[in-house]
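Entry type: protein chain
Record version: 2
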Amino acid sequence: MQPRPPNPFNDLPPLVVALALVIAGVELIFQAGASGFVGGQAAVGWRLTALETWSVRADVWDWMLRTRQAPLDEVARVFAYPFVHSGFTHAAMVCVFVLALGNVVAPVYPGWRLLVIFFGAALGGALVYLLLFDARSPLYGGYPPAYGLIGAFTYLTQRGLTRADPAKAFLLIGLLLAIQPVFGLLLARNFAWLPDWSADLGGAACGYLAAMLLFPGALHRIRDRLRQR
């Protein structure tokens, strides 16, 4: 009896795998619906409906500010948009980032800490996108939280907890931002959608900040310094 080949997911943190599976699962549902395998004719529009319902939109943001209302289903957009993508390639690229970077970040930030980095970057990226630009197009896709993991990875390199050079970690962020237009063309997205690089950069900054605050013992050190003052 030949031994079974090793499962590539065995060495990955379960929470990282779960995030990637949710992203992939949502995309597979859209693909199956568009292909007619499930849902009938109505399934063809599932992706557009999800984008309308869960993407971050400036008009919704402006309405909440103007009316001073914050319905939960609208607030949820800033946490749900990373799971809706424009197509298979878009979702696959995000999954690769989440699995690769999450595998490095999760051992230092297990459990809820990883979720704070991921969704904190999603929230921060959305806010930067809405505040810095006249965002006429909706924001969707998992790049902002993926960049949040890059930000956390950058912090770990500065702490000497990875083999990577800190300068190269920052270079990775700049390189990915520089080739975002290429990704846009590959994903058949209009260049009018590309100011979302600001959300990616905001996500990276929030991921770095969250990693700094959530690093083991960091909050205790901050509290002790505040007490000394």
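Comment: The domain at 14-215 is CATH 1.20.1540.10 (Rhomboid-like fold).
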